[in-house]
């Protein structure tokens, strides 16, 4: 690990990575990698998660490519020193700038649920900012990890970017090295380990974690559209999505009213048999399969509930009349189980959300801007979706990241450049006009102090 980091450090010291030409060439190389190897990448994602090709294309490959296109369009402007105006009295003598400087060698630790997107999108940000990087894909999606290890060196000089594969021992060794930035995606327990290791070297971190993302459904919502968007966002990748709706808050009446719409949507999405459908992923491994199954209380299941360990299959499952004490509410579900908790009104929903950890995402379905404003002004979350779920991940113009337990820092678009750069304050003046600032020099006096 030490040799790898030293190699990258030497490459960074050549200053090659700082030019716009180098940066844009690396982004184009990643785009080319995705274009020339799409079939192999789709196969790897299928082996790891039985990910349907459409989900792999829409929620992994296209997101990376759109990010590259957006970044290439704006990179020249983003990385130029930004002129900022000081206060009026200082303008005649001083010019001020924010200079975006690459940090050096970054470590990117990815998670298994979107193993391509969660490694390559941060890598795009790191390279666009002029850094070198070590990429550590998750060992729980080994096929995608192997493909990344094989392909990346074919497209990007391995003196500048290295893939290190392995599990806890390898990551622990990596974390002993001094990096200039660590970008981690995964659970909060390991996030704390990463932060502790980073503290030793005073290395800045971004922690992209998760948590229980709530949804409030108001009685004014269009329940068919709500059911459709919810079911898509919750059951894509079999619920293994960090910003997937985790649980629903609504009144008892809304709970009853949405059920037929949910059943209709499941039928439309997956036909008679979800298990036979090509549009439904599988749970990543047996440990997670057992964990998710253990969260389901069959007496509260109104749709789904079936499972098959041999295929790591758990059907899209809806549970009604769940209470905060139920197991399913004790941890992030990260699987295809959607519990409903009933509340009497939206204030109760707001209080419930505020009594728990700050979520990664919060979604509200309603047809009334007063309700939207109420949630916007009285709750917090990494992101907030009104009448839609998940799609915020594709908008490069807004930051992606958590708050509190759901994470530290953010990325995407210009926010990736801010994350992977040092924003250096630059002040420029000439030798002219020094007499104007006579009052700062000793000997000090009351009249100078009051100037
Ligand atoms: P994981 O098991 O793949 O772990 C993430 C990374 O941490 C892996 O690369 C792994 O090798 C490394 N790791 C594991 N144990 C470690 C240790 N002891 N020391 C050092 N490194 C270690 O993924 P996970 O944690 O199961 O991911 C699921 C969680 O991640 C969920 O909470 C989910 O919400 C969250 N997540 C967040 C985002 C986001 O963008 N905010 C995206 C995806 C997942």
From TrEMBL:
One of its GO terms (molecular function) is aldehyde dehydrogenase (NAD+) activity. It comes from the Eukaryota. Residues 18-426 form the Aldehyde dehydrogenase domain. The active site is at residues 208, 242. InterPro entries: Ald_DH/histidinol_DH (IPR016161), Ald_DH_C (IPR016163), Ald_DH_CS_CYS (IPR016160), Ald_DH_CS_GLU (IPR029510), Ald_DH_N (IPR016162), Aldehyde_DH_dom (IPR015590), Aldehyde_DH_NAD(P) (IPR012394). GO terms for biological process: aldehyde metabolic process. Keywords: NAD, Oxidoreductase. One of its GO terms (cellular component) is cytoplasm. Belongs to the aldehyde dehydrogenase family. This is Aldehyde dehydrogenase. The lineage of its organism: Eukaryota, Metazoa, Spiralia, Gnathifera, Rotifera.
